[in-house]
Write a structure and sequence with these properties.
This protein is α/β, with parallel strands linked by helices. It is built from 8 helices and 10 strands. The chain has an 8-stranded parallel beta barrel with strand order 1-2-3-4-5-6-7-8, surrounded by 6 helices. A two-stranded antiparallel sheet has the order 9-10. α1 packs parallel to α2 and α3 packs parallel to α4. The protein is globular and about 45 Å long. The relative contact order is 0.15.
């Protein structure tokens, strides 16, 4: 079965506990916990990570966004140092992995040195590493994937379309399939950006069997009146069942 990753907004204590538990009950394989979704996701608080860990029980797959400031994907050295501290604190709070994305201001490509630094910190705590949709803001997808493979990243979250465009993963399917074949089994393609109940099966059909490792990342599609719905997560999971 193709894994389902649910993005949970780290709004407040009650919301985190309730929504992560609903995702767990629905069978979500992974959680990506993010604060300030209006800024495309920032680092959640330690308290919220601890609450999410309790709600997601002993299922591996609790991921935390590590992004201290919004407004883009370029960071100064002191912000990278802060991100290292956030990785350590998130690990202590019980995460299984982190989600990062750092670009080079000069080239808009992946900042190899800073990413290597953050990945090294994550590996100190045996955490998995996902590179988020900063990937979609890079100018050369092939060079970016080669860089991520060399860095040993576990997953990359992408819609297959340019960051900032209105296009969704459905429009990016051709590119997603090409990228998936390019990396083979070297890392997992996490398909995100407008994944919904109505298009999940189409995405699945387009990606299989050409792409060896991929998963689906969803957010609004599994919400009911703003809260994660265990029923909707279960429905999304059912769409991933082999036919």
């Amino acid at each position: 079965m193709i894994p389902i990753e649910v993005c949970v907004h780290s709004k407040d204590d009650s919301y985190v506990s309730r929504s992560v538990l609903s995702a767990w009950q629905g069978g979500a394989d992974r959680i990506e916990l993010c604060s300030h979704m209006e800024q495309d996701g920032l680092t959640p608080s330690i308290q919220h990570i601890e609450l999410a860990r309790d709600a997601f029980k002993d299922r591996p797959g609790l991921l935390a966004m590590i992004r201290p400031v919004g407004g883009g994907f370029f960071y100064a050295m002191d912000e990278i140092a802060l991100m290292e501290h956030q990785i350590r604190d998130a690990a202590t709070a019980g995460v299984d992995g982190i989600v990062i994305g750092v670009l080079d201001k000069k080239t808009a490509g992946i900042h190899r040195a800073y990413c290597e630094q953050l990945i090294g910190k994550a590996r100190e705590f045996d955490l998995t590493v996902t590179f988020h949709r900063a990937f979609d803001a890079t100018p050369d997808w092939q060079y970016s994937l080669e860089t991520l493979l060399e860095l040993g990243v576990d997953r990359v979250l992408t819609s297959g379309t340019a960051w900032g465009s209105v296009e969704t993963a459905l429009e990016g399917l051709g590119q997603l399939e090409t990228m998936g074949r390019f990396v083979s089994e070297g890392l997992e393609i996490v398909v995100g950006g407008g994944v919904s109940m109505s298009n999940a099966s189409t995405i699945l059909s387009a990606m299989k069997p050409e792409v060896k490792r991929f998963s689906l990342h969803t957010y609004s599609a599994v919400l009911d009146h703003g809260n994660v719905s265990s029923l909707k997560v279960r429905q999304m999971k059912s769409l991933m069942l082999p036919t």
